[in-house]
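Tokens as discussed.
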């Protein structure tokens, strides 16, 4: 039986005046606002120990407790959702995932995911190693991270890709816009990542119950108050880039968990794009290098920063 999750949040001064349902949706991230409203109406959410309504206006230093019930996985239905297919053969499919799309079904978000789209596009040709909820899924991208993701169309390809990931044999290159000006041209962040001790939805650099995490970064362009960076994952921990960049004082712009909203435009989440995948084909061994150009939201932010370009 799948267990429910109990979560606890605390409000700060910057949360004052926000609606409870909107505020919670931003923190739960992979669920819809309507699902959050349903949890509130059914008594799963308590504010300072009492049941609350969706429209409650928050105040500083409130404690919000939420019970997120885990539904029993059912059949995930195929949906006719357009996919930007970068590469496909009988063994693998590589997709350029748009910002805002969840990779696989989760509580409160059972439709409109990449898996729903893959089931329609690939039919029965997806690996079943990860079960009915995550067919074909070898690795993940966060909901608001755009870019390349590879899925396996059979179990042989899935096993080989998983092993390649463990051995760091798949190059995953990203680009991001981060807060602040990074002075050095490049760097290596070697800091272990584990679950945040208080906010269980967040990850953190910690030496307790953590795993090794290494991220490489290089400066692509400097602006007055921001930096455009290229990033490469040596390991693949949950939220790794977002946690590591915040750890060195340069959080990804728009990151709702580890940074802050962008003051120039609504980025609808972190400005982070999985630009390139490089690996040997899991069946043929052929060298593969696939790229996805920067999406419109990323380009619009660069254009907004152009007028404040910082030489160097």
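Sequence:
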């Amino acid at each position: 039986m799948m267990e429910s999750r109990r979560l606890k949040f605390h409000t700060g001064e910057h949360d004052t005046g926000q609606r409870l349902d909107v505020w919670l949706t931003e923190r739960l991230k992979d669920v819809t606002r309507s699902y959050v409203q349903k949890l509130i109406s059914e008594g799963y959410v308590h504010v300072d120990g009492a049941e609350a309504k969706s429209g409650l206006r928050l105040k500083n230093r409130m404690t919000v407790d939420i019970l997120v019930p885990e539904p029993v996985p059912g059949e995930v239905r195929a949906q006719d959702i357009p996919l930007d297919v970068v590469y496909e053969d009988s063994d693998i499919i590589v997709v350029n995932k748009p910002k805002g799309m969840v990779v696989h079904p989760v509580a409160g978000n059972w439709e409109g995911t990449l898996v729903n789209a893959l089931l329609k596009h690939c039919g029965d040709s997806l690996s079943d190693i990860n079960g009915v909820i995550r067919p074909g899924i070898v690795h993940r991208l966060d909901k608001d991270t755009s870019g390349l993701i590879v899925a396996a169309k059979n179990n042989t390809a899935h096993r080989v890709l998983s092993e390649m990931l463990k051995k760091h044999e798949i190059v995953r290159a990203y680009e991001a816009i981060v807060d602040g000006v990074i002075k050095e041209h490049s760097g290596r962040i070697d800091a272990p990542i584990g679950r945040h001790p208080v906010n269980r939805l967040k990850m953190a650099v910690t030496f307790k119950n953590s795993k090794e995490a290494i991220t490489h970064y290089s400066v692509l362009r400097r602006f007055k108050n921001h930096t455009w960076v290229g990033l490469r994952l040596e390991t693949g921990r949950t939220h790794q880039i977002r946690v590591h960049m915040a750890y060195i004082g340069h959080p990804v712009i728009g990151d709702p968990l580890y940074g802050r909203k962008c003051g120039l435009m609504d980025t609808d989440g972190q400005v982070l794009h999985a630009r390139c995948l490089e690996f040997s084909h899991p069946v043929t061994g052929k060298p593969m290098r696939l790229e996805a150009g920067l999406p419109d939201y990323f380009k619009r932010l660069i254009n907004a920063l152009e007028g404040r370009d910082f030489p160097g």
